[in-house]
Every structure is written in C-alpha cells, then in structure tokens.
Amino acid sequence: MEVGRAGLAWAAALLLAALGAQAAAGDFDPYRVLGVGRSSSQADIKKAYKRLAREWHPDKNKDPGAEDKFIQISKAYEILSNEEKRANFDRYGDAGESQGYSQHQHRQFHRFHEGFYFDESFFHFPFNSERRDTSDEKYLLHFSHYINEIVPDSFKKPYLIKITSDWCFSCIHIEPVWKEVAQELEALGAGIGVVHAGYERRLAHHLGAHSTPSLLGLINGKITFFHNAVVRENLRQFVENLLPGNLVEKITDKNYIRFLSNWKKENKPHVLLFDHMPVVPLLYKLTAFAYRDYLSFGYVYVGLQGTEELSSQYNINVYTPTIMIFKEHIDKPADVVQARDMKKQLIDDFLSQNKFLMVARLTNQRLFQELCPVKKSHRQRKHCVVLLTGEGEKFAEAYEAFLAFAVANTKDTLKFVHIYNDRQPDFADALLMDEEKYRGKSAVVILERRNNAGKVAYKTLEEAWQGSKEDNFILLDLLDQLRTDPNLLSSETVLADLNDELAPMFLIRWLYSTLDYLSDCWDSLFHSNWREMMPLLSLLFSALFILFGTVIVQAFSDSSDTRDSPPSEKEETAAKTEKNDASFSKESNRIPKKGFVEVTELTDINYNSNLVRLRPGHMNVVLILSNSTKTALLQKFALEVYTFTGSSSLHFSFLSLDKHREWLEYLLEFAQDAAPIPNQYDKHFLERDYTGYVLALNGHKKYFCLFKPHRSGDEGASPEDYNSSLHAEARGKSSCSPGSRSIKTKLHKLSFWMERLLEGSLQRFYIPSWPALD
After folding, report:
1. Is residue 267 domain-shared with residue 160, that is, in the same domain?
2. How many folded domains does the chain comprise?
3. Which of 134-138, 275-279, 697-701 has the lowest mean pLDDT?
4. Are residues 422 and 441 in the same domain?
5. Is the pLDDT of residue 356 over 90?
6. For residue 183, is it within any domain?
7. Confidence grade of residue 673 (pLDDT, cut at 50, 70, 90)
8. Cβ(215)–Cβ(195) under 8 Å?
9. Residues near 564 by beta carbon (within 8 Å), at least 6 away in sequence
10. Which DSSP helix (H) or strand (E) runs through 337?
11. Any idea where the Thioredoxin domain is (predicted)?
C-alpha cells in the first residue's frame, strides 16, 4: 500500500513538472518577437525577420543583449517559416516536441497501471538542462562566436571540439575521458569547444556533424573528424597529428650550426629546446605552432649520443629542461630560461619578449606594423631607426656597426631595423630624396608612423652611414634630441605597403592547396558517410559527363560544313564596324576596340570577380531588366554605351530583376528617394518596376551611381499615374499603351549620364558592404 502511494506521488510530481515545462514554453511568442500578426503571410514574416536580423546582429549591434535577442529572432523565424511548426504553435502554443500534450496525454499515460511510460519530450526543458555537465559550460560555442573568434584563433592553436545533445547516452559514456583530456590539453595550449546540437543546430550542420557524440579537430580553419576509440592516448595523438610535421627540427652536434646560422635567411630568432625526453613533448609542438611566424624551433634530446658537444658548449644541465634563444650571434644565446616543471605561461612570457631579432629586416608590411606601430598618444610614441642598405660583403661593415649600436641603445620606445634597397625600392625611394648621394652606400633614417594609411614623419642622416665613431655620435645625439623635441622629424611622406619577400611562389602555393584538397578527398573516402560524399561524387560525374559529351559531339560533328559556309550577316556587320573604327582618331581614349558591346549577365558565379573584387578604378555598369524587356532594353543599352566601350576601366553587365529583386531593393535603400518606403496597403509594391534602371558600381570603394529611367510625356503626371503605367506595363498590355511605348524611351539620355559618370559629377551612394547576390 505504501509502495502504491509513493508511486502515485512520484507520478503526480512528474506530471506537474511536465505541465510547468509546457507553461514555460508557452511564454515564448514568435509572433510578438517578430512583430507580426497571426494572419501574416510568409512574405511579411520574412521581411520582418530580415529587418530585425540586420538590426540585432551581434556583429553590428553592440548592445549586451543583442546576441540573446538575435537568437530569439532566429528561433521565432524558424517556427513561423515552417508551416507544420507554425500550425502546431497556433494549435498548442508550442512548436517543440511537447506540443499537443493534451491531445496525446492518453497515449502517453495509457500504460500507467503497468509502469510509468514517458518519452524524451516529457522532460523536454528542465530536466535536460539540469542533467548537462556543468564542466562543459565554459567551452560552449555559438555560431557567431565560432566564426568570428574560434576560426581565426585556430591559426594559432588547434581546437578539439565535442558535439553533444540531450539524452545522448553515448555522450555520458565518454564524459570522464573527455573531461580528463580537455583539462590536460587546455593546460598545454590547445583550444577546447563544446557544441550542443539541440540548441546550436546551425553550427552543428556547419561543422558537418550528423550524429552525437562527434569529436573533431580544427586547425588553420580546416575541420578533421576523430574516428578512433575515445581513450586518452588516441585523443592526444589525434591533436598531435593535426599539427604540421615540420614544426620542430631535431638538433644534434652535426646540424646545430647550420640551424642557428639560418637566422639571416629566415629573418627569425632560433629557439633550442633541451629536454631528456626521446620524443618532442606536445607542449613544445603547440608552442612552436603558436609562434611559427616569429621563431624557428629545434629540439635537443640531451640523452642521445651525438649531443655532448652541444650540451657542453652551452653548459646545459641535462636534468633540467632548458630553452635558449639565439639571434644575430650564434656563439652565445640572447636569453635563457630553465625550470624543472616547464609551464605554458612561463614559456609564453619568455618567447613573447624575444620574438624579433635585434635588427630585424623588414620583409613584409605586417612585420613593419608590429615593429613600428602607429603612435596612440604623445606618451606612447615609438620611433624606428631604419638602416637602408644592400646585400653582400660591401655593406657588411656598415651593418655590423649598426647592429653594435642597436644592441647598446635598444629601448622599449626605440626599435632598430634594416631593409634592402633593391628588394624594397619604393620604400627606399620615398625616404631618400637625393638618390645619387646615397647610391652604393648605406643610409640611416629615423621615422615615426602617423597613421595606418602609410603616412610617416622622418629625418634622414645628412651623411651616408659608414659605422664610424663620428656616425655613432651623430646618431646618438639625434636620438637624445628626439626625446625632448618631437618636431625634429620635420619631413613627411606616404609609404606604400612593403613587398612580402618570403611569400612562396604562386605555383608552390597552388601545389600545396592541391595536395591538401587531395588529402581531404582521400580521408573522406574512408571516413565520411555517403551524405557528405554526394557533392564530391556529383561534381566528379558531372565533369566526366561534360568531358566525354564534348568529345562525342566533336567526333560526330561535320566540320566541313562550317568551313564551307559563307559568313553570316552579323559577322559581315561586325567586320564593317571594325573597319570603320580603325579610321577613328587614335588620340581619343574612348575609341571602341570592338564592333559590338560585350554585356555579361551578373550572376552568383561571377559576382565576386565582376564586382566585389573589382580592381581599383574600375566600374561595372549594370542594366536592370526583366525577361519580358530583355531584348528591347539590351539593344537600346548597347546603342547608348557603345561609344564608351573603349575605356578599359568600364565593364558592362545586366541583372535579371526576376531573379535578384531583393538584392536590388536592398541596394536602393541607400539611395535617396530611389526605393520608396513600402506601404502595407500597396498591393502593387512587390510588382514595382525597376526595369531600365542603370547602376554604376565601384566594387573597391563600395559606392554606386544611379540612373533612373527617362519618362517621356509624363512630366506633369502624378506618381500614382506613373505607378499605374508601370503596373500596366508589367501585366503586358498592348504596344499601343503608354506603358509599352515607355520601354523604348527608358534609356533615353543614358549617354549624357555616362558622360557625367566619367567626369565624376554624379552623386555617389555609399554602402557598408556588398550584399550576397543569392
């Protein structure tokens, strides 16, 4: 009897909890979140979602609650955009798995007398949240956090990421191993992340995780899945295998001189790690990956035969791990650290203070910006002393004297660097006004960067640098004056970005990219499921079909008909036009080079090359048309712009209004009075006719100029009359109607607009970034 009462009490408690969960879920109203009514159409819901998403996106809105608001907006749109979920919400007040509780309660509890029956939806919210391990809370990832922070950070350290979900019993099984490995790897310098597939479906889908639990590694923005047994050794080895194999070089008595002497070629300090472990510890590999852009690493196994000379020369304690940094002088280290228990924080502090040579060579713009940062205030002034010199023994003496001066006078506010004139000619020419005076000699310049656009203030030593005592006294005196008189740097100039001297050749980069892609495909053949392989297989079979189809068509085509056929009328017209063009004056910079106008369609395939990545100074002139007006508008457009096709900075395209109306309307929002504000009672708003609009798009500077169609005979007409003619035109009235006749005159005066475009007298409408075309 007591057992029965206890069972009834337990069942009642579970029932009350379920009802409480359902009431909590009912507090969320997607209609209220998006600000739409229950009778709103999908178009209204989509428009409201896009407006709110732009307003509350965490990357644009810095409000502390922007991310939570954005999540609510996305969740509301996910419910209302799905007709089934929307119907469930309208019927039960909840779009989740717990909807329809009252409808199905008999089915869920009909076996109560035999044993309490429940499914996952019964415990949908409160119990799942309490069951989740709190140790994973600090590792939880969200989509925006992953894209904006984790992916860029993966170029500095690898990440081990777990995909989990509620009521995943396999996740519970691997939890002890995961917790131990996560704490161990985080202490060594690896990144840890956890994605809850139930709450971050978008991120889980982006990572390619279709089941839970899933473990994956992320390094350099590349994802690799873990496919072995979940034990500590396998996970450690998986993270270690993510790292490149050439991070740390094995050093012995035979190769240490060669290794340390490469500082000049690589323009980096070199680090020697001394330890009694036969293999390179994972801590050192992770450290080498984090600092690979600044330092070169070598590992010395002090217990190995063949390292006695090395250990003796640098007086190494074989029982204590030691790290030495060598810069321009390889006979003695620039800095040393020893510790029995080498921790990551100790290593980071030590290496961060020794990332550069004493007189580093400026080989790229990033290095220049780090060594010579822009001043933030008068108290944070930092000056750079630059030796402009050349390569070879002829300049060795001047460089050695400059290095000795730098070692004796380096300070936190003063950096010494050098540069090769023949490798960075633009940089040298901008600072040396009298090139003949310094030809074949070295020169010293003191400079201060004023802004990120390349503006610098500088002063050049009047005489060439030879490294004499007199040169040292002159330079030291100028540096002393600079501390009290900032106006000593009286000259100003703008420096172009430095060439990247150490960047690999294009062919080598292409080869590495191809090898990485082939490696990914090979790995996918063995580990990926068929759903992940379908895009690759589809691409492969499509390429084979096109290849063999082309061969078969060419084999059966009769080439003789093509050779014997007379030239077409279009070809004759083009030939005549080209002959007439040859008689034009060659001095004009807008002589058409062809007998036709090349107009390409702007699609998502060529969108980046034809607009987003358009070269500076180039513009794309885009005609807006529809399927019904395509032929007429293209003919008129070609006639109007033909005289401007000789300009190499102009490109001509057309955009289909039927496919990309949303893209155009988003762009016109930035133009004054170009896109009217929608009226919810205007049933013709979605039919608004933009055919005949012409946009001149500057992809580099992110602005556009707008040409609106010419309307003949309606100067005194009201906007309502004009709109009615547009709607009549869109419905396809007869050619005798004013709407049909206006198509022929829409591009009237376009040539005058093109003249003003080249003069630069048109109004420009700037946008923050180009929207995606699709």
Report:
1. no
2. 5
3. 134-138
4. yes
5. yes
6. yes
7. low
8. no
9. none
10. strand 335-338
11. 118-244
* In a shared domain, residues 756 and 651: yes
CA distances from 563 to 218, 426, 558, 607, 692 (A): 58, 54, 9, 37, 41
Which residues, 6+ apart, have CB-to-CB distance to 661 below 8 Å?
Answer: 690
Residue 650: phi, psi to the nearest 5? Answer: -110, 135
What CATH number corresponds to the domain at position 636?
A: 3.40.30.10
Which SS3 state, helix, strand or coil, does residue 327 take? coil
Strands, sheet with 694-698, edge to edge from the N-terminal-most edge strand? 599-601, 650-656, 619-625, 694-698, 703-707, 765-766
What are the φ/ψ torsions at residue 479 (nearest 5 degrees)?
A: -65, -35
pLDDT of residue 518: 65
- 657 and 629 in contact (C-beta within 8 Å)? no
What pLDDT is attached to residue 361? 92
Domain membership flag for residue 263: yes
Do residues 428 and 485 both lie within one domain? yes
- Residue 71 sits in a domain whose CATH number is 1.10.287.110
Q: Count how many residues are written for the chain.
A: 774
Q: Tokens 């929002």 appear where?
A: 669
Distance CA 285, CA 270 (A): 15
**Do 200 and 78 form a contact (C-beta atoms < 8 A)?**
no
Q: Phi-psi bin for 616: left (phi > 0), alpha (psi -120 to 50), beta? A: beta
Q: Which of 632, 620, 652, 631 is nearest to 746 (CA)?
A: 632
Residue 595 in any domain: the answer is no
Which element (helix H / strand E) includes 241?
Answer: helix 232-242
Full residue range of the structural domain in which residue 85 is found? 28-91
In a domain, 10, yes or no: no
**Least confident residue range of 54-58, 204-208, 237-241, 535-539:** 535-539
Same domain, 385 and 476: yes
User: What burial class does residue 147 get, using C-beta atoms within 10 Å of its C-beta: 0-12 exposed, 13-18 middle, 19+ buried?
Assistant: middle
Q: Residue 719: what pLDDT?
A: 40
Cβ–Cβ under 8 Å, residues 158 and 190: yes
The whole-angstrom separation of Cα 77 and Cα 637 is 41
Distance CA 427, CA 422 (A): 10
What's the pLDDT at 593?
64
Last residue of a domain, one of 300, 327, 353: 353
| Residues 297 and 386 occupy one common structural domain | no
Cα 335 to Cα 150, 213, 216, 422, 524, distances in angstroms? 33, 46, 38, 33, 46
Distance CA 136, CA 179 (A): 8
Asked if pLDDT for residue 550 goes beyond 50, the answer is: yes
| Residue 220 and residue 180 in one domain | yes
Backbone angles phi, psi at 584, to 5 degrees: -70, 165
Q: How far from chain centre, in Å, is Cα 348?
A: 27
Cβ atoms 90, 55 nearer than 8 A: no
pLDDT level of residue 112 (50, 70, 90 thresholds): very low
Q: Are 108 and 122 spatial neighbours (Cβ–Cβ below 8 Å)?
A: yes
Q: How many angstroms separate the CA atoms of 650 and 655, rounded?
A: 16
Q: Pick 80 or 715 by higher pLDDT.
A: 80
Which residue, of 190, 218, 242, is where some domain finishes? 242
Residue 99's CB is within 10 A of a number of other CB atoms, namely 21
Least confident of 83-87, 233-237, 425-429: 83-87
Helix (H, G, I), strand (E, B) or coil at 286: helix
What average pLDDT does this structure show over 239-249?
92
User: Taking all residues of the chain, what is their mean pLDDT, rounded to a whole number?
Assistant: 79
One domain for residues 372 and 468: yes
Pairing of strands 414-420, 360-361: parallel
Q: Which residues pair with 345 in a beta bridge?
A: none
CA distance 703 to 85: 41
Angle at 84 between CA 144 and CA 658, to 5 degrees: 70
d(CA 259, CA 247): 13
Distance CA 582, CA 73 (A): 62
Six-digit token string for 471: 């040169």
